[in-house]
Amino acid sequence: MQDLHTAQTAQDDIERSIVAGILSARIKPGTRLSENQLATVFGVSRTRVREAMMRLETRAIVHVSPRRGWFVAEPSAGEAMTVYAARRVIESGLLRSMSELTDAGREKLHAHLAEEKEAIAAGDKQRLTCLMGDFHIRLAELSGNGVLIDILRDLTARTILISLLYQSDFHAMQSHLGHCTIVAALETGDFARAAELSIAHLEEVEEGLDLTSRRDPLSDLRTSLSLPPAAAQSTEAAVPSRRNNRKRRTA
Amino acid sequence: MQDLHTAQTAQDDIERSIVAGILSARIKPGTRLSENQLATVFGVSRTRVREAMMRLETRAIVHVSPRRGWFVAEPSAGEAMTVYAARRVIESGLLRSMSELTDAGREKLHAHLAEEKEAIAAGDKQRLTCLMGDFHIRLAELSGNGVLIDILRDLTARTILISLLYQSDFHAMQSHLGHCTIVAALETGDFARAAELSIAHLEEVEEGLDLTSRRDPLSDLRTSLSLPPAAAQSTEAAVPSRRNNRKRRTA
DNA sequence: TATGTAAATCTTGCATACCAGACAGGAGAG
DNA sequence: CTCTCCTGTCTGGTATGCAAGATTTACATA
């Protein structure tokens, strides 16, 4: 919540800021989104914050626990699988439906792959999370279909939340290679193959998740205190207020 | 707006009622949705109506004209094409991704086709519009993927609005046959073929639209007065207040 | 020391009040 | 008779206020 009050907050900047924050992996799943705080930060009344939250809720990006607060979604394992399945359906359908790869499209894809490579070299994990999701938005943009782009953007946001929750180890290079093969198939004009590759890629990514074990609800606290799984320690630095120590309920 | 105040209006019944009204073709595109009227009808304050409208707006089912009012969406020709393209992508991807047709699924599809046949025999055009859209939701339900179901439900709602706007003549039997061939392909286990058929079917339906000529903005008034294209008459029954006579702006 | 209870403090939920823009209809001028 | 402008009335836009619920903390007690 620190650095998203940069813009001058026109109409629905609240909504966009939060989505942007999630897409860039700055906002973690389960983050509390206080109406009052957001209202203060964006210089509007709670009413408009509320409206933004409602809209985000219909996009399954945020959820409300009655009288408790708004929280960034924490997709369950079941939801995670559903989202990945949906993405496989849509992305493969998208690629298969393509009839040509324009020069501009090729250009953008290559530029993106270059960025990925760069981030891998730099080892910037947060940036990578963001880029790995962005790739699929780039694919959607190839179609030029605004409806599909919107849908995939939301699914990507949810995917990022899922990654942050369940991704034990981050096979960045593996994902990157997957993207490369998809682009390669597109360049040869073999869209059916690109579709198949995208399915395989998404399955691969999904398999990289640890959907069996529910995440430790206290893990963020533990990491804040910088201790691996147990034992106690004193200094807390990353916890600004006592409020963050709250146990979160998944219900 | 007459018969959607049946339910006892729990939390988001406003939203559901409107969507249901659209899915059943009772609510026409461009219908004005007054905050005050809805608030009265549902026995709540404008605040909650407003929230429902916001949610519907993010689903592209409703749109607001600043300081003028909320209206059921009237998709442009461009949007219409985009929506159909998106549906082709998603539905074909969905069918292609299937690995089996369960008995329960087969059962439901057949039941639906029977309903279609029945409605055709009865010549119930409104019911047909509803059923033609529902078929595709049934297909989505085969996947059991809640995310896809939601997406396709919204797209179907938009499709119905499009149909009401642009469908010059209603080739119900043609659509029905299309549905039958898709089901037949599914029954043989040839999901790739079903996918291709769904694309063809949707293209066929889209071609049945008249997307070139913008709909006459006065046509709803004319039909309300039950006169084909011109000349005047006196009694108006379906127009409760002068407000409804307003010319609507597409912007 | 551990535990149960109660009060305090936060949170959202909802309604209301007020503001400003847009349209319609009528009055007046040409 | 026609055109223009003005005003009344409706619309949504926004903020605020109050109420209800949940959680936490403090405190008393075993």
UniProtKB/TrEMBL annotation, chains A, B:
Residues 221-236 have a biased composition (Polar residues). Residues 8-75 form the HTH gntR-type domain. InterPro entries: GntR_C (IPR011711), TF_FadR/GntR_C (IPR008920), Tscrpt_reg_HTH_GntR (IPR000524), WH-like_DNA-bd_sf (IPR036388), WH_DNA-bd_sf (IPR036390). One of its GO terms (molecular function) is DNA binding. Residues 220-251 are annotated as: Disordered. The keyword Phosphoprotein does not apply. CDD domains: WHTH_GntR. Keywords: DNA-binding, Transcription, Transcription regulation. Gene3D superfamilies: GntR ligand-binding domain-like (1.20.120.530), Winged helix-like DNA-binding domain superfamily/Winged helix DNA-binding domain (1.10.10.10). SUPFAM superfamilies: GntR ligand-binding domain-like (SSF48008), Winged helix' DNA-binding domain (SSF46785). This is DNA-binding GntR family transcriptional regulator. The lineage of its organism: Bacteria, Pseudomonadati, Pseudomonadota, Alphaproteobacteria, Hyphomicrobiales.
